[in-house]
Amino acid sequence: MLPPVLGSLPVHPVPAHPEGSHLPLVLGIDVGGTKVAAGVVDGNGAILEVIRRATPGRDARAVEGVIAELVQELGARHEISSVGIGAAGWMDLAGARVVFSPHLAWRDEPLRENLEKLLHRPVLVTNDADAAAWAEARFGAGRGYSRLIMLTLGTGIGGALVIDGGVERGSFGMAGEFGHQIIMPGGHRCECGNRGCWEQYASGNALGREGRELAKKHSPMAAGLLAAVNGKHKDITGSVVTELALQGEATARELVAEVGDWLGLGIANLAAALDPALFIVGGGLSAAGELMLEPARRAFSRNLTGRGYRQEAVITVAQLGPMAGLIGAADLSRR
User: Out of 43, 114, 176, 256, which could bridge 245 as a Cys pair, Cβ 3.0 to 4.6 Å?
Assistant: First the structure.
């Protein structure tokens, strides 16, 4: 039996393009640790209908069953030409196999073959950050740019690179792991096994950790943070600090600005290596907006190689919100 339908997701409007009006409808599916969302996407990147269900644990076959049922349900109401699957993890270059997914029991899983047998439609499998970057490049903040980097700030830092009309996957399909550049040798231990990774300083987890550390030291500066969580410092998360910062709480704003400083430093490193014209910042932490991006821009300019003698990339916030991965996976399936 399928998990219950959890309800609809917000649909973000996408400006229409004449060239997209004659393209067939496609289906995008975003597979997460807690939910599977499926949406019908037209040639302009607009979502016509979206539904979601709870992820049935870590069972790979059960997840494939949920995907099949969602496609069947939406396919009964829309003529769908192909299906794009976006999920966290590493995918092969052919868009056929999930090499490794951190949230599900997919290990060298021939997902495309499995699903095409169930769905009787062409299927593409892609990384969720790659899919989000493609959506922003095609329909969001990246329109008009031929080279851009997308960063998704949440638990860690996801990333993807779009170059000259295509997502750059690298030689083995694992490009874009920008969060694991070592920015502070010997620094905080990262889940990847290294120390000092960028995502330990410029992510939602990093923001929450700094708030908790301040509270644990009984600093008077943490009074506002503790008041928001009824004195339970373990409940201070990145999202709590972000919300307090948006409300004007001084310490929360300072912590968000510090994360922005680290963000700008890492972006300067990426600019030195890859020289894109645009950096798009998405993910849950991007809700901090200019409170984080303005310090990031200052740190970027301060640390940029050749500063003062080169054109600087634009740093902006993503436009498509949590639907970017679904839209991008759908559109990539056409290609």
Answer: 256
What type of residue is 309? Y
Residue 297 vs residues 136, 262, 276, 308: alpha-carbon distances, Å = 20, 10, 15, 14
Q: What angle do CA 32, 151, 330 make, to 5 degrees?
A: 50
Bridge partners for 28 per DSSP: 39, 84
CB atoms within 10 A of CB 102: 13
CA atoms of 311 and 255, how far apart (whole Å) = 29
Instruction: Encode pLDDT of 207-226 as tens digits.
Output: 999 999 999 998 999 999 99
pTM (2 d.p.) = 0.86
- How far apart are alpha carbons 182 and 26 in whole angstroms? 39
